Amino acid sequence: MAELQLRDIRKSFGTVDVIKGVDLTINSGEFMVFVGPSGCGKSTLLRLIAGLETITGGTLAFDGQIVNNLAPSKRGIAMVFQSYALYPHMTVYDNMAFGMQLAHAGKEQIRERVEKAAELLQISPYLKRLPKQLSGGQRQRVAIGRAIVRDPKVFLFDEPLSNLDAALRVATRLEIAKLHHSMNGATMIYVTHDQVEAMTLADRICVLRDGIIEQVGTPVELYEQPQSIFVAGFIGSPKMNFLTGRFAEPYGAKTIGVRSEHIQIGPGEGAWTGKVIHSENLGSDSYVYADMGADEPVVVREDGTKKHQPGEPISIRPIPGQVHRFDAEGRPLGRQ
Amino acid sequence: MSTIDQVQRVSSFDLWKLVKKTAFYLLVLFIVVVMVFPFYYAILTSFKSGTNLFIVTYWPHELNFANYLNVLQSAAFLQNFANSIIVATLTVLLSLLLAVTASYALSRVNFRGRGVLLMTILAVSMFPQIAVLAGLFELIRFYNLFNTLWALIFSYTIFSLPFTVWVLTTFMRDLPVEIEEAAIVDGATPWIIIWRVFLPLLWPAMVTTGLLAFIAAWNEYLFALTFTSSNSARTVPVAIALFSGNSEHEIPWGTIMAASVLVTAPLVVLVLIFQRKIISGLTAGGVKG
Fold first, then answer.
1. Which uninterrupted H or E stretch holds B158?
2. What is the SS3 assignment for A101?
3. Euclidean distance between CA atoms B150 and B146, whole angstroms
4. For residue A58, what pLDDT is reported?
5. In this complex, is the C-beta atom of B85 within 8 Å of any C-beta atom belonging to chain A?
6. Which one of A6, A143, A158, B141 has the minimum C-beta count within 10 Å?
7. How many Å apart are CA B223 and CA B239, to the nearest integer?
8. Which of 3.40.50.720, 3.40.50.970, 1.10.10.10, 1.10.3720.10 would CATH assign to domain B70-274?
9. Choosing among B185, B194, B198, B287, which should be mutated to test the A contact, i.e. which has the most A CBs within 10 A?
Protein backbone atom coordinates (compact mmCIF):
# COMPACT_ATOMS: atom_id res chain seq x y z
CA MET A 1 0.00 0.00 0.00
CA ALA A 2 3.00 2.25 0.18
CA GLU A 3 5.90 2.90 -2.11
CA LEU A 4 9.23 3.48 -0.41
CA GLN A 5 11.98 5.61 -1.90
CA LEU A 6 15.45 5.46 -0.41
CA ARG A 7 17.72 8.19 -1.77
CA ASP A 8 21.42 8.03 -0.91
CA ILE A 9 20.67 6.71 2.57
CA ARG A 10 23.68 6.77 4.87
CA LYS A 11 24.22 5.67 8.44
CA SER A 12 27.29 6.05 10.62
CA PHE A 13 27.85 4.90 14.17
CA GLY A 14 30.52 7.30 15.36
CA THR A 15 33.28 7.06 12.79
CA VAL A 16 32.09 3.73 11.40
CA ASP A 17 30.06 3.96 8.20
CA VAL A 18 27.57 1.12 8.15
CA ILE A 19 25.30 2.17 5.28
CA LYS A 20 27.25 3.95 2.57
CA GLY A 21 24.67 5.43 0.26
CA VAL A 22 21.74 3.23 -0.68
CA ASP A 23 19.40 4.13 -3.54
CA LEU A 24 16.38 1.89 -3.80
CA THR A 25 12.72 2.05 -4.68
CA ILE A 26 10.44 -0.52 -3.13
CA ASN A 27 7.20 -0.75 -5.06
CA SER A 28 3.81 -0.70 -3.44
CA GLY A 29 2.70 -4.20 -2.45
CA GLU A 30 6.07 -5.70 -3.18
CA PHE A 31 7.78 -8.40 -1.12
CA MET A 32 11.36 -7.13 -0.93
CA VAL A 33 14.05 -9.23 0.73
CA PHE A 34 17.33 -7.75 1.99
CA VAL A 35 19.95 -10.44 1.98
CA GLY A 36 23.66 -10.51 2.63
CA PRO A 37 26.33 -11.88 4.95
CA SER A 38 26.39 -10.82 8.59
CA GLY A 39 27.65 -7.28 9.06
CA CYS A 40 26.55 -6.13 5.61
CA GLY A 41 24.12 -3.61 7.10
CA LYS A 42 20.84 -5.26 6.10
CA SER A 43 19.38 -5.14 9.61
CA THR A 44 20.55 -1.56 10.06
CA LEU A 45 18.85 -0.59 6.80
CA LEU A 46 15.61 -2.16 8.04
CA ARG A 47 15.91 -0.32 11.35
CA LEU A 48 16.43 2.95 9.48
CA ILE A 49 13.21 2.31 7.57
CA ALA A 50 11.47 1.42 10.85
CA GLY A 51 12.74 4.59 12.50
CA LEU A 52 14.52 2.75 15.30
CA GLU A 53 17.79 4.33 14.15
CA THR A 54 18.24 7.89 12.97
CA ILE A 55 19.28 8.42 9.37
CA THR A 56 22.69 10.10 9.07
CA GLY A 57 22.27 11.23 5.45
CA GLY A 58 19.91 10.95 2.51
CA THR A 59 16.14 10.84 2.42
CA LEU A 60 13.59 8.17 3.09
CA ALA A 61 10.13 8.72 1.65
CA PHE A 62 6.88 6.79 2.00
CA ASP A 63 4.61 7.54 -0.99
CA GLY A 64 6.64 10.64 -1.74
CA GLN A 65 6.41 12.00 1.79
CA ILE A 66 9.75 12.29 3.57
CA VAL A 67 9.66 10.47 6.89
CA ASN A 68 13.27 10.90 8.09
CA ASN A 69 12.20 12.56 11.33
CA LEU A 70 8.92 10.75 11.89
CA ALA A 71 8.58 8.51 14.94
CA PRO A 72 8.25 4.77 14.18
CA SER A 73 4.62 4.66 15.30
CA LYS A 74 3.73 7.50 12.91
CA ARG A 75 5.22 5.86 9.83
CA GLY A 76 2.53 3.22 9.40
CA ILE A 77 4.92 0.32 9.85
CA ALA A 78 4.84 -2.84 11.91
CA MET A 79 7.87 -4.90 12.78
CA VAL A 80 8.41 -8.57 13.56
CA PHE A 81 11.59 -9.20 15.51
CA GLN A 82 13.92 -12.17 15.41
CA SER A 83 13.46 -12.77 19.14
CA TYR A 84 9.65 -12.27 18.95
CA ALA A 85 9.92 -9.40 21.50
CA LEU A 86 6.53 -10.11 23.03
CA TYR A 87 5.57 -8.39 26.29
CA PRO A 88 6.13 -11.24 28.77
CA HIS A 89 3.61 -10.04 31.36
CA MET A 90 0.75 -9.54 28.93
CA THR A 91 -1.58 -12.17 27.52
CA VAL A 92 -1.51 -12.91 23.81
CA TYR A 93 -4.61 -10.74 23.42
CA ASP A 94 -3.03 -7.79 25.25
CA ASN A 95 0.18 -8.20 23.31
CA MET A 96 -1.72 -7.80 20.08
CA ALA A 97 -3.98 -5.04 21.39
CA PHE A 98 -1.28 -2.89 23.03
CA GLY A 99 -0.52 -0.74 19.99
CA MET A 100 -4.19 0.04 19.36
CA GLN A 101 -4.76 0.75 23.04
CA LEU A 102 -1.97 3.30 22.95
CA ALA A 103 -3.62 4.85 19.90
CA HIS A 104 -6.85 5.13 21.94
CA ALA A 105 -8.88 2.95 19.60
CA GLY A 106 -12.31 1.78 20.68
CA LYS A 107 -12.60 -1.45 22.66
CA GLU A 108 -14.93 -3.09 20.15
CA GLN A 109 -12.73 -2.16 17.23
CA ILE A 110 -9.66 -3.56 19.01
CA ARG A 111 -11.39 -6.82 19.78
CA GLU A 112 -12.61 -7.20 16.25
CA ARG A 113 -9.17 -6.68 14.75
CA VAL A 114 -7.34 -8.88 17.27
CA GLU A 115 -9.80 -11.71 16.79
CA LYS A 116 -9.59 -11.44 13.04
CA ALA A 117 -5.80 -11.56 13.10
CA ALA A 118 -5.82 -14.45 15.57
CA GLU A 119 -8.14 -16.40 13.34
CA LEU A 120 -5.96 -15.75 10.30
CA LEU A 121 -2.94 -17.11 12.16
CA GLN A 122 -4.83 -19.87 13.99
CA ILE A 123 -3.92 -18.63 17.44
CA SER A 124 -7.48 -17.95 18.62
CA PRO A 125 -7.35 -20.68 21.32
CA TYR A 126 -4.31 -19.05 22.93
CA LEU A 127 -5.56 -15.49 23.31
CA LYS A 128 -5.76 -15.78 27.11
CA ARG A 129 -2.32 -17.32 27.54
CA LEU A 130 0.98 -15.71 28.41
CA PRO A 131 3.87 -15.88 25.94
CA LYS A 132 5.81 -18.27 28.18
CA GLN A 133 3.02 -20.83 27.81
CA LEU A 134 3.50 -20.95 24.03
CA SER A 135 5.98 -22.77 21.80
CA GLY A 136 8.50 -20.88 19.69
CA GLY A 137 6.41 -21.16 16.53
CA GLN A 138 3.26 -19.97 18.30
CA ARG A 139 5.14 -17.03 19.80
CA GLN A 140 6.37 -15.93 16.40
CA ARG A 141 2.79 -16.15 15.11
CA VAL A 142 1.67 -13.91 17.93
CA ALA A 143 4.40 -11.47 16.95
CA ILE A 144 3.17 -11.55 13.35
CA GLY A 145 -0.39 -11.14 14.64
CA ARG A 146 0.65 -8.08 16.61
CA ALA A 147 1.99 -6.63 13.36
CA ILE A 148 -1.22 -7.42 11.45
CA VAL A 149 -3.42 -5.76 14.09
CA ARG A 150 -1.60 -2.49 13.54
CA ASP A 151 -2.85 -2.64 9.94
CA PRO A 152 0.40 -1.16 8.65
CA LYS A 153 1.26 0.08 5.21
CA VAL A 154 4.64 -1.63 5.45
CA PHE A 155 5.54 -4.87 7.23
CA LEU A 156 9.13 -5.20 8.39
CA PHE A 157 10.55 -8.61 9.23
CA ASP A 158 13.94 -8.88 10.92
CA GLU A 159 15.11 -12.48 10.46
CA PRO A 160 11.83 -13.80 11.86
CA LEU A 161 12.63 -17.45 11.27
CA SER A 162 16.15 -17.63 12.68
CA ASN A 163 15.06 -18.88 16.10
CA LEU A 164 12.85 -21.67 14.81
CA ASP A 165 13.93 -25.23 14.11
CA ALA A 166 14.27 -26.43 10.52
CA ALA A 167 10.80 -27.97 10.08
CA LEU A 168 9.02 -25.04 11.71
CA ARG A 169 11.05 -22.63 9.63
CA VAL A 170 9.73 -24.11 6.39
CA ALA A 171 6.14 -24.11 7.72
CA THR A 172 6.33 -20.50 8.94
CA ARG A 173 7.96 -19.43 5.68
CA LEU A 174 4.90 -20.77 3.89
CA GLU A 175 2.64 -18.86 6.29
CA ILE A 176 4.44 -15.61 5.60
CA ALA A 177 4.12 -16.20 1.85
CA LYS A 178 0.39 -16.87 2.32
CA LEU A 179 0.10 -13.78 4.49
CA HIS A 180 1.59 -11.66 1.72
CA HIS A 181 -1.05 -12.93 -0.70
CA SER A 182 -3.93 -12.47 1.74
CA MET A 183 -2.87 -8.99 2.84
CA ASN A 184 -3.18 -7.86 -0.73
CA GLY A 185 -1.37 -4.63 -1.17
CA ALA A 186 0.79 -4.49 1.94
CA THR A 187 4.44 -3.80 1.21
CA MET A 188 6.75 -6.23 2.99
CA ILE A 189 10.43 -5.90 3.68
CA TYR A 190 12.18 -8.96 4.96
CA VAL A 191 15.73 -9.30 6.22
CA THR A 192 17.51 -12.62 6.17
CA HIS A 193 20.96 -14.08 5.74
CA ASP A 194 19.44 -17.26 4.35
CA GLN A 195 19.42 -17.15 0.55
CA VAL A 196 16.82 -19.97 0.40
CA GLU A 197 14.33 -17.77 2.29
CA ALA A 198 15.21 -14.92 -0.04
CA MET A 199 14.69 -17.00 -3.19
CA THR A 200 11.40 -18.54 -2.05
CA LEU A 201 9.69 -15.47 -0.59
CA ALA A 202 10.85 -12.49 -2.59
CA ASP A 203 9.28 -10.62 -5.45
CA ARG A 204 12.62 -8.85 -5.61
CA ILE A 205 15.85 -9.43 -3.73
CA CYS A 206 18.30 -6.75 -2.71
CA VAL A 207 21.78 -8.15 -2.08
CA LEU A 208 23.82 -5.99 0.27
CA ARG A 209 27.52 -6.05 0.93
CA ASP A 210 29.52 -3.74 3.21
CA GLY A 211 26.74 -1.15 3.34
CA ILE A 212 26.12 -0.82 -0.39
CA ILE A 213 23.70 -2.51 -2.75
CA GLU A 214 25.40 -5.17 -4.80
CA GLN A 215 22.39 -6.01 -6.98
CA VAL A 216 18.61 -5.71 -6.97
CA GLY A 217 16.39 -7.98 -9.04
CA THR A 218 13.94 -10.83 -9.12
CA PRO A 219 15.21 -14.15 -7.75
CA VAL A 220 15.55 -15.54 -11.29
CA GLU A 221 17.49 -12.48 -12.48
CA LEU A 222 19.91 -12.80 -9.60
CA TYR A 223 20.28 -16.48 -10.24
CA GLU A 224 20.76 -16.26 -13.96
CA GLN A 225 22.42 -12.89 -14.41
CA PRO A 226 24.47 -12.09 -11.32
CA GLN A 227 26.15 -8.70 -11.69
CA SER A 228 29.21 -9.70 -9.64
CA ILE A 229 31.13 -12.68 -8.37
CA PHE A 230 29.77 -11.87 -4.91
CA VAL A 231 26.13 -12.18 -5.94
CA ALA A 232 26.89 -15.26 -8.04
CA GLY A 233 28.46 -16.90 -5.01
CA PHE A 234 25.80 -15.78 -2.56
CA ILE A 235 22.69 -16.83 -4.46
CA GLY A 236 22.16 -20.53 -5.10
CA SER A 237 22.84 -23.61 -3.07
CA PRO A 238 25.30 -25.26 -3.18
CA LYS A 239 27.55 -22.30 -3.88
CA MET A 240 28.60 -21.66 -7.48
CA ASN A 241 31.96 -23.22 -8.41
CA PHE A 242 34.59 -20.59 -9.20
CA LEU A 243 37.66 -21.48 -11.24
CA THR A 244 40.61 -19.39 -12.31
CA GLY A 245 43.88 -19.82 -14.23
CA ARG A 246 44.00 -22.58 -16.81
CA PHE A 247 40.29 -23.31 -16.37
CA ALA A 248 39.27 -19.73 -17.12
CA GLU A 249 41.70 -18.90 -19.90
CA PRO A 250 39.88 -20.80 -22.69
CA TYR A 251 36.79 -18.67 -21.91
CA GLY A 252 38.73 -15.41 -22.09
CA ALA A 253 37.97 -14.50 -18.47
CA LYS A 254 39.84 -14.03 -15.23
CA THR A 255 37.37 -16.17 -13.30
CA ILE A 256 34.61 -18.45 -14.45
CA GLY A 257 31.66 -19.62 -12.42
CA VAL A 258 29.60 -22.76 -13.02
CA ARG A 259 26.69 -23.94 -10.92
CA SER A 260 26.72 -27.55 -9.79
CA GLU A 261 23.65 -28.39 -11.88
CA HIS A 262 25.33 -27.01 -15.01
CA ILE A 263 28.12 -29.60 -15.01
CA GLN A 264 27.85 -32.98 -16.66
CA ILE A 265 29.81 -36.03 -15.73
CA GLY A 266 31.57 -37.89 -18.52
CA PRO A 267 34.41 -37.34 -20.98
CA GLY A 268 34.01 -35.04 -23.95
CA GLU A 269 35.38 -31.92 -25.57
CA GLY A 270 36.80 -29.46 -23.04
CA ALA A 271 36.38 -31.89 -20.19
CA TRP A 272 38.33 -31.53 -16.93
CA THR A 273 39.69 -34.59 -15.21
CA GLY A 274 40.35 -35.22 -11.55
CA LYS A 275 39.44 -37.36 -8.59
CA VAL A 276 36.33 -37.78 -6.48
CA ILE A 277 36.84 -36.54 -2.90
CA HIS A 278 33.42 -37.24 -1.49
CA SER A 279 29.84 -37.70 -2.58
CA GLU A 280 26.64 -36.73 -0.78
CA ASN A 281 23.53 -38.69 -1.56
CA LEU A 282 20.28 -36.80 -0.95
CA GLY A 283 17.93 -39.40 -2.47
CA SER A 284 16.51 -37.42 -5.37
CA ASP A 285 19.93 -36.21 -6.38
CA SER A 286 23.50 -36.33 -5.17
CA TYR A 287 26.44 -33.95 -4.97
CA VAL A 288 29.88 -35.07 -6.02
CA TYR A 289 32.91 -33.17 -4.74
CA ALA A 290 35.79 -33.52 -7.19
CA ASP A 291 39.40 -32.34 -6.93
CA MET A 292 40.32 -30.88 -10.33
CA GLY A 293 43.63 -29.37 -9.26
CA ALA A 294 41.94 -26.02 -8.55
CA ASP A 295 42.02 -24.21 -5.17
CA GLU A 296 38.70 -25.62 -4.10
CA PRO A 297 36.86 -28.82 -4.97
CA VAL A 298 34.25 -28.60 -7.71
CA VAL A 299 30.71 -29.59 -6.76
CA VAL A 300 28.66 -31.43 -9.33
CA ARG A 301 24.95 -32.19 -9.03
CA GLU A 302 23.87 -35.54 -10.39
CA ASP A 303 20.35 -36.97 -10.69
CA GLY A 304 19.56 -40.20 -8.94
CA THR A 305 21.63 -42.05 -6.44
CA LYS A 306 24.67 -43.17 -8.36
CA LYS A 307 27.56 -43.99 -6.05
CA HIS A 308 31.05 -42.56 -6.48
CA GLN A 309 33.92 -43.88 -4.41
CA PRO A 310 36.49 -41.41 -3.04
CA GLY A 311 39.64 -41.51 -5.15
CA GLU A 312 37.77 -42.61 -8.26
CA PRO A 313 38.90 -40.76 -11.41
CA ILE A 314 36.24 -38.49 -12.91
CA SER A 315 35.78 -36.35 -16.02
CA ILE A 316 33.41 -33.39 -15.96
CA ARG A 317 32.45 -30.69 -18.45
CA PRO A 318 30.39 -27.52 -18.04
CA ILE A 319 27.25 -27.24 -20.18
CA PRO A 320 27.95 -24.73 -22.98
CA GLY A 321 26.17 -21.43 -22.50
CA GLN A 322 26.01 -21.90 -18.71
CA VAL A 323 29.49 -20.68 -17.83
CA HIS A 324 29.48 -17.27 -16.11
CA ARG A 325 32.58 -15.24 -16.99
CA PHE A 326 34.02 -12.51 -14.77
CA ASP A 327 36.84 -10.01 -15.21
CA ALA A 328 39.58 -9.16 -12.71
CA GLU A 329 37.22 -6.76 -10.84
CA GLY A 330 34.60 -9.46 -10.48
CA ARG A 331 32.30 -7.83 -13.06
CA PRO A 332 30.41 -10.11 -15.47
CA LEU A 333 31.51 -10.59 -19.07
CA GLY A 334 28.45 -12.58 -20.08
CA ARG A 335 27.86 -16.29 -20.33
CA GLN A 336 29.45 -18.67 -22.76
CA MET B 1 36.72 -58.86 43.84
CA SER B 2 34.50 -60.82 46.23
CA THR B 3 31.01 -59.80 47.24
CA ILE B 4 32.05 -59.31 50.88
CA ASP B 5 34.66 -56.78 49.84
CA GLN B 6 32.03 -54.83 47.95
CA VAL B 7 29.62 -54.82 50.89
CA GLN B 8 32.32 -53.51 53.20
CA ARG B 9 33.28 -50.77 50.80
CA VAL B 10 29.69 -49.69 50.41
CA SER B 11 29.05 -49.58 54.17
CA SER B 12 32.18 -47.56 54.97
CA PHE B 13 31.20 -45.18 52.21
CA ASP B 14 27.75 -44.78 53.79
CA LEU B 15 29.34 -44.02 57.16
CA TRP B 16 31.49 -41.25 55.71
CA LYS B 17 28.43 -39.78 54.00
CA LEU B 18 26.55 -39.86 57.30
CA VAL B 19 29.38 -38.06 59.13
CA LYS B 20 29.51 -35.36 56.49
CA LYS B 21 25.76 -34.90 56.59
CA THR B 22 25.72 -34.67 60.39
CA ALA B 23 28.56 -32.16 60.41
CA PHE B 24 26.73 -30.05 57.87
CA TYR B 25 23.51 -29.93 59.87
CA LEU B 26 25.41 -29.22 63.09
CA LEU B 27 26.96 -26.21 61.41
CA VAL B 28 23.56 -25.05 60.18
CA LEU B 29 22.14 -25.47 63.68
CA PHE B 30 25.01 -23.46 65.14
CA ILE B 31 24.46 -20.59 62.68
CA VAL B 32 20.73 -20.55 63.29
CA VAL B 33 21.19 -20.48 67.07
CA VAL B 34 23.68 -17.64 66.91
CA MET B 35 21.37 -15.62 64.68
CA VAL B 36 18.07 -16.31 66.37
CA PHE B 37 19.10 -16.41 70.02
CA PRO B 38 19.28 -12.63 70.65
CA PHE B 39 15.77 -12.17 69.32
CA TYR B 40 14.53 -15.21 71.23
CA TYR B 41 16.01 -13.78 74.41
CA ALA B 42 14.31 -10.43 73.71
CA ILE B 43 10.95 -12.19 73.44
CA LEU B 44 11.63 -14.11 76.68
CA THR B 45 12.54 -10.94 78.54
CA SER B 46 9.56 -9.02 77.19
CA PHE B 47 7.22 -11.44 78.99
CA LYS B 48 8.99 -11.06 82.34
CA SER B 49 8.32 -8.52 85.00
CA GLY B 50 9.83 -7.15 88.17
CA THR B 51 13.00 -8.77 89.44
CA ASN B 52 12.47 -11.78 87.21
CA LEU B 53 14.03 -9.64 84.50
CA PHE B 54 17.41 -10.18 86.02
CA ILE B 55 17.20 -13.93 86.42
CA VAL B 56 18.73 -15.67 83.41
CA THR B 57 16.40 -18.31 81.96
CA TYR B 58 16.36 -20.02 78.62
CA TRP B 59 12.78 -21.28 78.57
CA PRO B 60 9.57 -19.28 79.05
CA HIS B 61 8.35 -19.46 82.67
CA GLU B 62 5.72 -16.78 82.73
CA LEU B 63 3.52 -15.08 80.17
CA ASN B 64 3.08 -11.55 81.44
CA PHE B 65 1.70 -9.02 78.95
CA ALA B 66 2.23 -6.06 81.26
CA ASN B 67 5.19 -4.78 79.27
CA TYR B 68 3.26 -4.88 76.02
CA LEU B 69 0.28 -3.11 77.55
CA ASN B 70 2.67 -0.57 78.92
CA VAL B 71 4.13 0.12 75.51
CA LEU B 72 0.86 0.12 73.60
CA GLN B 73 -0.85 2.41 76.05
CA SER B 74 1.82 5.03 75.69
CA ALA B 75 0.62 7.65 73.21
CA ALA B 76 4.20 8.73 72.55
CA PHE B 77 5.24 5.28 71.40
CA LEU B 78 2.26 4.95 69.05
CA GLN B 79 3.19 8.32 67.59
CA ASN B 80 6.77 7.13 67.09
CA PHE B 81 5.50 3.94 65.51
CA ALA B 82 3.34 5.89 63.07
CA ASN B 83 6.31 8.17 62.33
CA SER B 84 8.48 5.17 61.52
CA ILE B 85 5.88 3.76 59.16
CA ILE B 86 5.39 7.09 57.38
CA VAL B 87 9.12 7.74 57.06
CA ALA B 88 10.01 4.26 55.85
CA THR B 89 7.11 4.04 53.38
CA LEU B 90 7.69 7.47 51.88
CA THR B 91 11.42 6.80 51.66
CA VAL B 92 10.75 3.60 49.72
CA LEU B 93 8.21 5.22 47.39
CA LEU B 94 10.39 8.25 46.74
CA SER B 95 13.57 6.27 46.12
CA LEU B 96 11.83 3.76 43.87
CA LEU B 97 10.22 6.52 41.81
CA LEU B 98 13.52 8.34 41.39
CA ALA B 99 15.50 5.12 40.91
CA VAL B 100 13.24 3.63 38.24
CA THR B 101 13.30 6.78 36.14
CA ALA B 102 17.02 7.31 36.70
CA SER B 103 17.89 3.73 35.86
CA TYR B 104 15.87 3.91 32.64
CA ALA B 105 18.06 6.81 31.57
CA LEU B 106 21.24 5.17 32.82
CA SER B 107 20.58 1.82 31.17
CA ARG B 108 18.73 2.79 28.00
CA VAL B 109 19.63 6.32 26.94
CA ASN B 110 23.05 6.91 25.45
CA PHE B 111 24.60 10.11 26.68
CA ARG B 112 28.08 11.42 27.31
CA GLY B 113 29.41 10.75 30.82
CA ARG B 114 27.02 7.93 31.61
CA GLY B 115 29.75 5.70 33.02
CA VAL B 116 31.18 8.51 35.13
CA LEU B 117 27.73 9.30 36.47
CA LEU B 118 27.12 5.67 37.42
CA MET B 119 30.44 5.50 39.25
CA THR B 120 29.67 8.76 41.04
CA ILE B 121 26.34 7.41 42.20
CA LEU B 122 28.06 4.32 43.52
CA ALA B 123 30.73 6.47 45.16
CA VAL B 124 28.08 8.33 47.16
CA SER B 125 27.33 5.14 49.04
CA MET B 126 30.96 4.99 50.20
CA PHE B 127 30.62 7.93 52.60
CA PRO B 128 29.96 6.83 56.17
CA GLN B 129 26.92 8.47 57.72
CA ILE B 130 28.99 10.20 60.35
CA ALA B 131 31.13 11.89 57.70
CA VAL B 132 28.19 13.70 56.11
CA LEU B 133 26.23 14.20 59.30
CA ALA B 134 27.37 17.79 59.97
CA GLY B 135 26.87 18.92 56.37
CA LEU B 136 23.50 17.25 56.14
CA PHE B 137 22.47 18.88 59.40
CA GLU B 138 23.29 22.31 57.95
CA LEU B 139 21.27 21.51 54.83
CA ILE B 140 18.29 20.43 56.86
CA ARG B 141 18.48 23.58 58.98
CA PHE B 142 18.76 25.62 55.78
CA TYR B 143 15.61 24.10 54.34
CA ASN B 144 13.83 24.44 57.63
CA LEU B 145 13.24 20.72 57.91
CA PHE B 146 14.76 20.21 61.36
CA ASN B 147 12.57 18.11 63.63
CA THR B 148 10.17 17.14 60.83
CA LEU B 149 9.61 13.78 59.23
CA TRP B 150 10.81 15.25 55.94
CA ALA B 151 14.30 15.64 57.39
CA LEU B 152 14.46 11.87 57.82
CA ILE B 153 12.75 11.02 54.52
CA PHE B 154 15.15 13.35 52.72
CA SER B 155 18.31 11.95 54.31
CA TYR B 156 17.24 8.30 54.06
CA THR B 157 16.37 8.72 50.41
CA ILE B 158 19.85 10.10 49.76
CA PHE B 159 21.38 7.04 51.35
CA SER B 160 19.14 4.43 49.74
CA LEU B 161 19.23 5.88 46.22
CA PRO B 162 22.74 4.78 45.17
CA PHE B 163 22.02 1.16 45.96
CA THR B 164 18.52 1.26 44.47
CA VAL B 165 19.64 3.00 41.28
CA TRP B 166 22.57 0.66 40.86
CA VAL B 167 20.54 -2.52 41.28
CA LEU B 168 17.68 -1.37 39.05
CA THR B 169 20.09 -0.15 36.37
CA THR B 170 21.80 -3.54 36.27
CA PHE B 171 18.45 -5.25 36.14
CA MET B 172 16.99 -2.99 33.47
CA ARG B 173 20.07 -3.34 31.32
CA ASP B 174 19.34 -7.07 31.13
CA LEU B 175 15.81 -6.55 29.84
CA PRO B 176 15.74 -7.34 26.10
CA VAL B 177 16.13 -4.24 23.91
CA GLU B 178 13.71 -5.74 21.38
CA ILE B 179 10.83 -5.52 23.84
CA GLU B 180 11.45 -1.82 24.20
CA GLU B 181 11.74 -1.41 20.44
CA ALA B 182 8.51 -3.33 19.92
CA ALA B 183 6.85 -0.90 22.31
CA ILE B 184 8.33 2.06 20.43
CA VAL B 185 6.91 0.71 17.17
CA ASP B 186 3.58 0.27 18.97
CA GLY B 187 3.71 3.97 19.74
CA ALA B 188 4.79 3.96 23.39
CA THR B 189 6.51 7.00 24.89
CA PRO B 190 9.41 6.47 27.33
CA TRP B 191 6.98 7.10 30.18
CA ILE B 192 4.62 4.36 28.95
CA ILE B 193 7.54 2.02 28.35
CA ILE B 194 8.66 2.50 31.95
CA TRP B 195 5.23 2.12 33.54
CA ARG B 196 3.46 -0.39 31.34
CA VAL B 197 6.26 -2.49 29.89
CA PHE B 198 9.29 -2.36 32.17
CA LEU B 199 7.72 -1.94 35.60
CA PRO B 200 5.84 -5.25 35.54
CA LEU B 201 9.09 -6.95 34.55
CA LEU B 202 11.05 -5.15 37.26
CA TRP B 203 8.85 -6.33 40.13
CA PRO B 204 11.37 -8.77 41.61
CA ALA B 205 14.11 -6.13 41.66
CA MET B 206 11.73 -3.44 42.93
CA VAL B 207 10.50 -5.62 45.76
CA THR B 208 14.00 -6.61 46.80
CA THR B 209 15.46 -3.12 46.73
CA GLY B 210 12.31 -1.59 48.19
CA LEU B 211 12.36 -4.05 51.06
CA LEU B 212 16.02 -3.33 51.80
CA ALA B 213 15.40 0.41 51.67
CA PHE B 214 12.45 -0.02 54.03
CA ILE B 215 14.49 -2.05 56.51
CA ALA B 216 17.35 0.46 56.39
CA ALA B 217 14.97 3.38 56.98
CA TRP B 218 13.15 1.48 59.71
CA ASN B 219 16.32 0.68 61.65
CA GLU B 220 18.21 3.93 61.11
CA TYR B 221 19.36 5.55 64.34
CA LEU B 222 22.04 8.21 63.90
CA PHE B 223 20.13 10.58 61.61
CA ALA B 224 16.92 10.00 63.51
CA LEU B 225 18.66 10.99 66.71
CA THR B 226 20.36 14.05 65.24
CA PHE B 227 17.62 15.52 63.08
CA THR B 228 14.77 15.30 65.57
CA SER B 229 14.35 16.90 68.93
CA SER B 230 10.86 16.02 70.05
CA ASN B 231 8.50 13.09 70.09
CA SER B 232 6.44 14.47 67.22
CA ALA B 233 9.13 13.56 64.71
CA ARG B 234 11.00 10.81 66.52
CA THR B 235 11.09 7.31 65.07
CA VAL B 236 10.96 4.05 66.98
CA PRO B 237 14.69 3.16 67.31
CA VAL B 238 15.48 6.49 68.93
CA ALA B 239 12.35 6.40 71.05
CA ILE B 240 13.24 2.98 72.43
CA ALA B 241 16.75 4.09 73.24
CA LEU B 242 15.35 7.08 75.10
CA PHE B 243 12.88 5.05 77.15
CA SER B 244 13.35 5.97 80.77
CA GLY B 245 12.27 4.22 83.90
CA ASN B 246 10.78 5.62 87.08
CA SER B 247 14.12 6.78 88.34
CA GLU B 248 17.35 7.86 86.76
CA HIS B 249 18.98 4.57 87.70
CA GLU B 250 16.34 2.25 86.38
CA ILE B 251 16.53 0.96 82.85
CA PRO B 252 13.10 -0.46 81.87
CA TRP B 253 14.37 -3.60 80.20
CA GLY B 254 10.95 -5.24 80.06
CA THR B 255 9.36 -2.35 78.18
CA ILE B 256 12.37 -1.94 75.91
CA MET B 257 12.22 -5.60 74.94
CA ALA B 258 8.48 -5.52 74.35
CA ALA B 259 8.85 -2.46 72.13
CA SER B 260 11.72 -4.11 70.26
CA VAL B 261 9.64 -7.18 69.57
CA LEU B 262 6.76 -5.00 68.39
CA VAL B 263 8.87 -3.02 65.92
CA THR B 264 10.18 -6.24 64.39
CA ALA B 265 6.68 -7.35 63.49
CA PRO B 266 6.14 -5.01 60.47
CA LEU B 267 9.37 -6.21 58.88
CA VAL B 268 8.41 -9.85 59.31
CA VAL B 269 4.96 -9.16 57.87
CA LEU B 270 6.43 -7.31 54.88
CA VAL B 271 8.87 -10.09 54.07
CA LEU B 272 6.10 -12.68 54.33
CA ILE B 273 3.84 -10.68 52.01
CA PHE B 274 6.45 -10.01 49.40
CA GLN B 275 8.42 -13.24 49.37
CA ARG B 276 6.00 -14.55 46.76
CA LYS B 277 6.86 -11.59 44.58
CA ILE B 278 10.58 -12.22 44.83
CA ILE B 279 10.66 -14.68 42.01
CA SER B 280 13.00 -14.71 39.12
CA GLY B 281 12.32 -15.58 35.52
CA LEU B 282 9.43 -13.21 35.11
CA THR B 283 10.68 -12.24 31.68
CA ALA B 284 10.46 -15.84 30.49
CA GLY B 285 8.62 -16.19 27.19
CA GLY B 286 8.94 -12.64 25.93
CA VAL B 287 11.92 -13.31 23.81
CA LYS B 288 13.36 -16.59 22.58
CA GLY B 289 13.73 -18.96 25.49
1. helix B149-173
2. helix
3. 8
4. 93
5. no
6. B141
7. 13
8. 1.10.3720.10
9. B185
